[in-house]
Specification:
- The chain folds into 2 domains: about 15-295, Zn peptidases (Aminopeptidase), CATH 3.40.630; about 300-364, OB fold (Dihydrolipoamide Acetyltransferase, E2P).
- Helix content is about 20%, strand content about 20%.
- The protein contains 7 helices and 16 strands.
- It has helices at about 85-95, 115, 140-145, 155-170, 200-210, 255-270, 275-280; strands at about 15, 25, 65, 75-80, 105-110, 170-180, 190-195, 215, 245-250, 295-300, 310, 320, 325-330, 330-335, 340-345, 360.
- An 11-stranded mixed sheet has the order 3-5-4-6-9-7-8-10-16-15-12, sandwiched between helices. Strands 11-13-14 form a 3-stranded antiparallel sheet, with no helix packed on it. The protein has a two-stranded antiparallel sheet with strand order 1-2.
- Helix 1 crosses helix 6 (about 255-270).
Length: about 375
């Protein structure tokens, strides 16, 4: 695999060039053109060919385990839970390219939904989130232990392949990006770190230092949208020392999102004493990011009518007092259930049955 300077974040790599010399993406559109509402300035990183990473030492395509031979934790870093969230895949590829190896324990670096990723068009990224079902909503044994014959979702098949590694993980980090912005304004939510609220997870999160916004979620906090990777198995067991984390690292295709993915991963590696200080410092793990804010009580309201309306122009991370109006949904008022209520992952053009975003309560 090609070695690269670990400080270098990939710039846009157009797929081909025309006879006019203008860079173009698939479909013949130039980089200078608009992209279905995406701010052009955010399309800074293009999908790379992942085929060099397919063959692995685990027997699972695109999942690599690096064993130090010294007793220690099994840390799993997952990318591409959704096929269009490439900040994590860039980070995982960078760590593999750079030859990062744990000094104790085992480090597993994986690319999950590669089939969906292979269909990614940065101008229209939504269709490549998944092929059949959301990979990050199926991590329940009743789903994974379901029928093995007939029509089985491709994401379920992939999760079954990866389940032995996930079950064996002491610590898991799922690297995500998102598209929550309203053109022409960029994404307003800062990077977030979510975990199931329990002592082991909180203790480790407090040592990470970035992202600065931490959400301690009760198991199943997303309701019918639960089944996330970081909730699976022991990660939701309050008495278990195993812990799963989800890092929202920024907008799709932004260089900063790749840098954030590398930063948070390096901080975990250092906090777990799995790499030396110099290795972690390559990716910014010792930069002072500021004071951590902690949130809890996450809820995910959904629209119950086709008449959903926001009560204001919200972009994300607005704070409300208890009882303050956030939105109307037909005759229903959606109000802040607590003081210090924060709105994140704001959805736009919400239809009946769709989630509107998430509400969290700041406690520190």
């Amino acid at each position: 695999m090609t070695k690269r300077n670990p400080r270098t974040v990939p710039a846009v790599r157009p797929r081909r060039r025309t006879g006019t010399g203008k860079a173009q993406w698939p479909g013949g559109r130039s980089l200078e053109e608009g992209t279905l509402g995406y701010p052009r300035s955010l399309i800074q990183v293009a999908p790379r060919d992942l085929s060099p990473y397919r063959r692995s030492n685990t027997g699972i395509d695109y999942v690599h385990t690096l064993d130090s031979g010294v007793t220690g934790p099994h840390f799993v870093v997952n990318s591409l839970s959704k096929g269009n969230e490439i900040c994590g895949s860039e980070a995982v590829a960078t760590l593999l390219d750079d030859g990062v190896h744990p000094t104790r324990g085992r480090l597993t670096l994986g690319f999950a939904n590669v089939e969906a990723y292979q269909q990614l068009d940065v101008h229209d990224p939504a269709p490549s989130k998944f092929l059949d079902v959301n990979f990050n909503r199926i991590w329940k044994d009743e789903i994974l232990d379901g029928p093995h014959s007939g029509s089985v979702a491709r994401e379920v098949e992939r999760a079954r392949q990866m389940r032995p590694v996930v079950r064996d993980a002491d610590i898991l980090l799922d690297l995500l990006s998102d598209c929550f912005y309203r053109a022409p304004n960029p994404w307003h939510d800062p990077p977030l770190l979510s975990y199931i609220e329990k002592p082991a997870a909180r203790r480790l999160a407090d040592r990470i230092g970035f992202p600065l916004h931490h959400i301690g979620c009760p198991p199943g906090a997303s309701g019918e949208h639960s089944g996330l990777l970081f909730e699976y198995g022991r990660f939701s067991d309050r008495e278990s020392a195993a812990a799963g984390f989800l890092a929202e690292c920024g907008p799709h295709f932004a260089r900063a999102s790749v840098a954030n993915s590398l930063n948070v991963t390096a901080r975990f590696l250092r906090a777990l004493d799995m790499v030396d200080r110099d290795t972690a410092d390559r990716y910014g793990a010792f930069e002072d990011a500021g004071e951590i804010a902690v949130y809890t009580d996450m809820v995910a309201p959904a629209a119950e009518s086709d008449s959903f309306r926001w009560a204001g122009e919200f972009h994300g991370h607005e704070t409300f007092s208890k009882g303050e109006l956030i939105a109307t949904d037909g005759a229903r008022r959606i109000e802040a259930p607590w003081d210090d209520c924060v709105l994140i992952t704001v959805a736009e053009d919400v239809r009946k049955g769709e989630g509107i975003g998430h509400l969290i309560r700041r406690i520190r």
